[in-house]
Amino acid sequence: MSAWRLSRRAQRTLSSLSSLAEVRSSATFSSRLDAAIATPMSPGDAASLITSADAARLTLDAAMVTTHLHTQSRIAAFEGNGFYTIGPCGEENLSAVALALRPTDPIALHYRHLGTLVARQLQRGVELRSLLLGRARGYTVSTSDGVTGGAHCSLGADHRYDFLVTSTLASQGPQAVGRAVAIEHLRAECWPADAISFVSCGDGSVNNAEWLSAVNAAEYVEHRRRACPTLFLVSDNGVSISLKGNGWVDRWVEQRLGMQVYRACGTRIANLMTQANAAADYVRSSRRPALLLVSGLPRRFGHAATDRQDQYLTPDEIAAAQACDPVAISAGEMVLAGVISREEVLRRYAQIGEMAEEAFVRARAEPREMSREQLLARVAPLAVRGVSKGCADGGEEEAGVGVNVGVGVGVGVGG
Q1: Residues 6 or more apart from 62 whose CB is under 8 A from it?
Q2: Which residues contact 165 (CB under 8 A, 6 or more apart)?
Q3: I need a labelling partner for 303 at 20 to 30 A (CA). Which of 193, 284, 319, 356 fits?
């Protein structure tokens, strides 16, 4: 339908949508890609991408999916049909970490690390349209959401390996250490004997007591000469919601950690893939904990749609973060290395964007539990009904959608 035939309200909506930073950014992706292609890369990084070309392409797909899911979530929220707007943009390249792990390694992800989960699902062979629809259902709190059933937008997938995290306070840390200790004592039907436990958080969470407890527990177990194959990841974008980091994470690592530390640049896919592989290989072979610190990340488009970042960041700081696009930078590196063509990058970016939009259209039309009676029933005290025994009974889940039971230190539900 042509614009002149649209209602005035619809025309105002289209005009307002075009003012969203995410929509404007999507429209100018090609210019950022061209700028990245014009930036020389090291021969070593190019060789690394050529050697792992298939993994690099999957990582790029997952990063693009992450960007487009965020864009559609902000559009849905703007139109009153989306209910979760904390954004992963700037950290899309953490999709590379998934390929350093195995699909059967237990993981617990920080709420901004969507790219890691997306890559993990693609690695398992999940069809892209199905993946996009599943995530769109979470953002729109559809009752068909397979993770929480419409209660919340949470990162989760296979309940045996992808542990549900709902907290923003790093409560996933102690449970991850508990799982690492338990790996050595559980039969192989739960996790493989050489599995490692992966857990991530943002730079602000390193000050949280639960994260500090988890790191301390892992180092104590190692001190006692027991296996504790935990890979911690901290992503540092320099700002914790509205509090600037001022270099604290680097100092925290230097003065606090005794475990092996690997450092990666979050905007350079070749470097991130190399360091993530090295960190995972070390933990898997040594059965000791290690930290992967991913720095240099921009926080694009603020913390959430309700964020008033102009109250604590300057206009230049906001513009610089939006201009630094890790997806475009990584795609440019891959073009320079000959792993993918510029035309294929743009075609894939547009294709995934269209698929994400279609997924949100479908998810927004599905039922939600929004009435007073439904919401009261959701928060009513739960009757005890067949609580899952987790891996002890072969990993069968009986307690309902999205419930994950931790093992060992910090036994409990989800995050």
Answers
A1: 92, 95, 98, 115, 118, 119, 122
A2: 108, 109, 110, 111, 154, 155, 156, 171, 172, 414, 415
A3: 356
Long-range contacts of 337-342 (CB under 8 A, 24+ apart): 337/41, 337/45, 337/46, 337/47, 337/49, 337/50, 337/270, 338/46, 338/50, 339/49, 339/50, 339/53, 339/56, 339/57, 340/57, 340/60, 342/33, 342/34, 342/37
Using DSSP, state whether 41 is helix, strand or coil: coil
Characterize 111-136 residue by residue with b for buried, 16 or more Cβ atoms within 10 angstroms of its Cβ, and e for exposed: bbbbbbbbbbbbbeebebeebbbbbb
Q: For residues 140 and 368, is the Cβ–Cβ distance under 8 A?
A: yes
Residues contacting 76, CB < 8 A, separation 6+: 82, 139, 140, 360, 364
Confidence bin at 383 (pLDDT 50/70/90): low
Q: Quick one: CA torsion of 216, 218, 221, 223, rounded to 10 degrees?
A: -70
pLDDT tens digits for 43-83? Answer: 999 999 999 999 999 999 999 999 999 999 999 999 999 99
Question: pTM for the full model?
Answer: 0.87
Q: How many CB atoms lie within 10 A of CB 387?
A: 12
Contact assessment for residue 231 and residue 8, using Cβ atoms and an 8 Å cutoff = no
Task: Say if residues 404 and 413 touch (Cβ distance below 8 Å).
Answer: yes
Q: What does the block give as tokens for 312?
A: 């604590």
- What confidence tier does 321 reach under pLDDT thresholds 50, 70, 90? very high
**Contacts of residue 391, Cβ cutoff 8 Å, sequence gap at least 6:** 160, 186, 189, 190, 191, 407
Nearest Cα to Cα of residue 266 among 384, 110, 16, 89: 89
- Per the CB < 8 A criterion, the answer to whether 93 and 63 are in contact is yes
Q: Which tokens in the block code for residue 130?
A: 């199905």
Place of tokens 């990841």: 233
The proportion of the chain whose per-residue pLDDT surpasses 90, expressed as a percent, equals 75
Q: What are phi and psi of 365, to 5 degrees?
A: -90, -5
Residue with tokens 């959701």: 378
Six token digits for residue 346: 């743009």
